[in-house]
Amino acid sequence: MRSLVAPFSLLILMACTPSADVTEGSSASGKTINAEAPFIWANKTFPKTIHISTDFSADEISNITEMGTAWKTAVAGQKTFFAMGSPGNNNYNINDTDGVFGVYKATTWPADVSDDALAITQLFGRRYNVGTASEYVSIVEADILINYKAGSMAFTYDVLDNGIDEGFDLRTVVLHEMGHFLGLQHIPTYYDRPDAESHLNRDDYKATSVMYPSVSSTEEKRIPQLKDKNALVNKYEIGGTGAASAMVAANRYQPANSDPGKNVKIVIELKASGECLHKEDGAVVRRHQIKLK
Length: 293
Description:
10-stranded mixed β-sheet
């Protein structure tokens, strides 16, 4: 094990053609994009069937399946988010859709993502309503890649509850990435936490959500927390009743004025240094520093 703390990265891919006219802070159209615009399965149809690569060991597959069940029961009685499909091969495509929602053992790591990232979730979709308050990314496909790259930059993962620390807890890593799969983004770090939570110490604050942007090798987060559940309830209008709720559900995350949207390639990379880069069509559209430790 080479690192005590490692960052998570989120890779959002939409079939793209690189554009030279993209400048920092704006899209290829010249409109300022919202790098924090929400990601959502716009059809809101669940469960999503995911296929686990047969390259994982039996214990690893058991860990991944367990975390799918953890999200499945996150909002009790309201929404089943994941179903486990038949085992799949390890032929993940980092550049295009293939119609399969997979969890892959990535022994070859994408060149445009830091080797220090434990895992990535790649979301394929379309950006709508650029430059407006209702901007969002509509997800159509997602994959999870766990970093098993060999060599000096290799990670090890703990899959057994045997009291022996063998690396980063695989279930913790997978639970986090499945949150991204559902459209959840990182919560602020401890140093940027909201005033309402400023009284919490670091460990207590990190425990409020499984979507903290980094994890230590000693952490175990295997159950979605209240903050995660509330985010899903809000995003997918789970449990709402009455005409007012139905109207809100019908109008949220919809293209405005017949906006056709735009297929783009977006990469959100959190480096081990804490620098976070948002790239669109190969150009940096937002750069900011996150204090991880």
